[in-house]
Design goal:
Layout: E1 2-7, H1 23-32, E2 38-39, E3 52-61, E4 72-77, E5 82-85, H2 92-99, E6 105-113, H3 122-125, E7 126-130, H4 150-155, H5 159-163, H6 171-181, H7 196-208, E8 214-218, H8 226-241, E9 246-251, E10 263-266, E11 276-277, H9 278-283, H10 287-292, E12 316-327, E13 330-341, E14 345-349, H11 356-363, E15 374-377, E16 380-381, H12 388-392, E17 395-398, H13 400-405, H14 412-417, H15 432-444, H16 460-472, E18 478-482, H17 490-504, E19 510-514, E20 527-533, E21 536-538, H18 558-564
Parallel strand pairs: 5-9, 5-10, 7-8, 8-9, 14-19, 14-20, 17-18, 18-19
Antiparallel strand pairs: 1-2, 1-6, 3-4, 3-6, 10-11, 12-13, 12-15, 15-16, 20-21
């Protein structure tokens, strides 16, 4: 079956089909466009010509705010696997939404040909998911503390319930897919308790149950540790080898392009390149490749907006004594002892699901179990009279969970300003000095032009920069950075790292930095904690090892840490 959509500004001819996400999209298209063009199938059986699966010729979107500067020419042919690459805000998502029919055409011709044995609707043949953070697309009922509230976790649907909502008549394919993804052990687990790697596998299983012809994954590796990245790449390669699906990956960096990709489209400043064979793309000096060279250059440390003039005098910023966190029969943290002193810079590493985010939720006073634990923050024991807001005013925090909870239709400048009072849209009136500081941080990150744009309409990389500015705006004594560089292109990674390094050099600033990749760190991070798995934390001191207690090794140099590599996935 072949489906063709012709766009025209005069008669508004456009394809009508159910889209990928919500009924709202479908209703919108049904109300506004009235012409369906279905052509007879022209797939090939014994013909040597390769079938064109998706084709967009001279496409121009009808929405002025989502329109490329030049007409879009794009195709996916039988046997091809594509990478769409570009820097943050370049138009990658807009390109995908245009070529999949989510944006109506002013002019151009969009056609699909999935074969005579394929389901009727395009939505069944093309499945698309965007991983803006470690947890994928936010749901309407999500709130930040939900993941740490055991009562809410009991009410959350389990993986099996989510997957059974997808129509799948081929039970053998379903069983094979579950085995392939290794998710049988996750079926009874509440979804809000999944690690980022586990949730990634659930999303992919959900998409593949309908046996689509094309699978589109945007930012597929964000939030994944190195072993989980390799696992995902191997999984996609296995699907390709079985000839079950064609893959389109949307990425920001050349190193994120796996070897199974056959062709590359490069997007830069709302312009789409021609289709490059992978080898040709890697061999030439394209825009992305030239920018990648900046990775070998040290960006000059920026001048940051002035701080609030307050210097933290507490001796111990964080002290955890014999802390344990359990959800039902599952132990996340077991008898943890950890002290972070004023001015120290810590790195926290470990595989997906090891409990790093849970540990941070204790420090930020967001985990309900924190109040039954022996926790001291800024020399004040938890429960001694300070409110959660008294604690938070000293802490700047960015994380995948924060990213997910902030997907709100409010101006970008308000996102940054919310850092002063840790609320969304309900903060007090800012002082002139605070307004000046907000604008200063927007300018420091090079995103001042975004101040009045809706947060949800920005790229995931632009959103991450805004959340970094939000974490820094109140000049916190403790800065907690949970995978702060994920989703950023090479230029913005270097800029963000330089800003963090400069901030860390201020007097009495304490840093806790979570990352899967040692190369993201910088010399001031002199202490390391390594999360080994569900049994607890592991460390080294005087040749001893413990499964349950953090053992500090402050003498571990940056070079030694990098030489040890990432922890193994257990």
């Amino acid at each position: 079956m072949a489906i063709t959509c012709n766009g025209n500004k005069d008669d508004k001819k456009i394809l009508v089909f159910p889209l990928f996400y919500t009924l709202d999209y479908y209703i919108y298209f049904c109300k506004n466009f009235n012409n369906v063009s279905l052509q007879g199938h022209h797939f090939l059986s014994n013909n040597t010509t390769m079938q064109t699966i998706i084709s967009l010729q001279n496409g121009i979107a009808g929405d002025l705010n989502r329109r490329f500067d030049t007409p879009i020419n794009f195709e996916l042919r039988e046997g091809e696997h594509l990478a769409v690459i570009g820097v943050n805000g370049s138009g990658k998502s807009t390109l995908i939404q245009t070529v999949t029919g989510q944006l109506f055409l002013k002019t151009g011709k969009l056609s699909f040909d999935f074969g005579s044995d394929s389901p009727r609707y395009t939505s069944e043949n093309i499945r698309y998911v965007t991983f803006n953070d470690a947890y994928g697309t936010a749901t309407a009922d999500y709130y930040y503390q939900q993941r740490w509230n055991s009562q809410d976790s009991d009410q959350a649907p389990c993986v099996k319930e989510i997957l059974e909502r997808e129509k799948c008549d081929n039970l053998s394919w379903k069983a094979h897919l579950y085995d392939l993804l290794g998710i049988n052990s996750l079926l009874e687990k509440p979804i809000i308790m999944l690690s980022s790697g586990e949730l990634r596998k659930m999303h992919i299983a959900k998409l593949l149950l309908s046996a689509p012809k094309v699978l589109i994954l945007e930012s597929p590796f964000i939030g994944l540790d190195a072993p989980s990245r390799r696992l995902l790449i191997n999984l996609l390669q296995h699907l390709i080898d079985e000839a079950t699906v064609q893959i389109i990956l949307v990425v920001s960096a050349p190193q994120d392009i796996p070897a199974f990709v056959t062709h590359v489209y490069e997007v830069d400043n709302m312009r789409c390149s021609r289709k490059f064979p992978l080898q040709e793309y890697r061999a030439q000096e394209t825009i992305t490749a030239r920018r990648a060279a900046i990775n070998n250059r040290h960006i000059e440390l920026p001048v940051l907006p002035e701080g609030n003039g307050e210097i933290c005098t507490a001796e111990e910023i964080v002290r955890l004594e014999n802390v344990s966190i359990r959800y039902g029969s599952r132990t996340i943290i077991d008898r943890l002892n950890w002290t972070v002193k004023n001015g120290e810079k810590w790195s926290l590493s470990g595989p997906n699901g090891a409990g790093k985010s849970t540990l941070l939720s204790l420090i930020c006073a967001d985990n309900p179990q924190a109040y039954s634990q022996n926790i001291t923050l800024f020399d004040h024991k938890r429960g001694s009279g300070e409110s959660i807001w008294d604690i938070k005013k000293h802490i700047g925090y960015v994380s995948p969970e924060i990213h997910r909870s902030y997907l709100k239709d409010i101006p970008a400048a308000e996102i940054v300003a919310s850092g002063y009072y840790d609320t969304i849209g309900l903060f007090r009136r800012l002082t002139p000095q605070q307004i000046e500081s907000c604008m200063g941080w927007l300018d420091t990150f090079g995103i001042s032009t975004l101040r009045d744009r809706s947060f949800v309409k920005l790229s995931s990389g632009e959103q991450r920069l805004l959340l970094l500015a939000r974490a820094l705006v109140k000049d916190p004594a403790l800065l907690i950075l949970d995978e702060p560089l994920h989703g950023l292109d090479i230029l913005n990674k270097e800029l963000a790292r330089a800003i963090i390094e400069t901030f860390a050099s201020r007097p009495n600033k304490t840093i806790i930095y979570v990352t899967h990749y040692p190369e993201e760190l910088w010399p001031p991070l002199r202490h390391r904690q390594r999360r080994s798995g569900s049994s607890g934390y592991e460390g080294h001191r005087a040749g001893r090892r413990s499964r349950h207690t953090v053992l500090l090794s402050p003498a571990l140099s940056q070079r030694q840490y990098r030489s040890q590599g990432s922890p193994r996935l257990r």
